[in-house]
Amino acid sequence: MSLGTILKSMTIPRWIIVVGGLGALALGYNGWRLHEQRTTLEAALEPDGLVERTSAKIQSLGKQITKLQADADREGLSGQSDPILYIRGSASDPNVRLGQVEVTGPKSQMIIKGTEDLQYTIRPQSDKGFPRDRIMNYLYLLESQSRRVRVTSIQLNPEEKKKEWEHTNDLWKWNIELTSRTKVETKAP
To answer: How many helices (H) and strands (E) does the chain have?
Structure first.
């Protein structure tokens, strides 16, 4: 029998049977697919299922990001890609009042694997001297507001060169070396 003779012999009841059979196969496949999805979703909702594990992980990561954000807020360098802004901002603090500072650097060094030390040299832009208490407040402020920053070298020279027994004005010219340690981002293979 050829396809032409089969189509000519088809009557309405036969067409209804063929179309109904194809529709039943399509509905059967769709019902099986939906059953598989429902079974997967029910398994995810069970105790210790995917939903419970995922929500526990989200809560854990939320607590971790809250702690890290609090640490970053305490850190003076948060939100800044350049520690020079932090250094200059500390010099203009009301307890320090050193005015404008000249920052040179950074010089990069890798002493420990996975960390990078950035070294900056700081000196005042003006050639006048400053009282020791302001300089020490500046050093304290640099280190106390950031866990990454450490003063590594200080050079103090009196503003006036006088003999040892002569009274000086207690103003000092200064030069500071500062190190900022950061983690080096390594790309995953």
So the answer is: 5, 5
Taking the CB of residue 150, how many other CB atoms lie within 10 A of it?
14
Residue position matching structure tokens 């003063």: 151
Half-sphere exposure for 38 (CA within 13 Å, toward CB): 6
- Cα separation, 108 vs 117, in Å, equals 6
Residue 125: which residues within 8 A CB-CB, separation 6 or more? Answer: 99, 100, 101, 102
Distances (CA, A) of 176 to 13, 120, 138, 145, 179: 99, 8, 10, 17, 10
74 to each of 50, 82, 103, 146, 148, how far by Cα in Å? 36, 17, 23, 7, 11
Question: Does residue 122 contact residue 149 with C-beta atoms inside 8 Å?
Answer: no
Cis omega (within 30 of 0) for bond into 106: yes
> With a cut of 70, which residues of the chain have pLDDT below it?
73-81, 186-189
CA 145 vs. chain centroid, Å, equals 18
Query: pLDDT tens-digit profile of 55-93?
Result: 999 999 999 999 888 877 666 554 455 778 888 888 888
pTM of the full structure? 0.55
Whole-number Å distance between alpha carbons of 139 and 134: 9
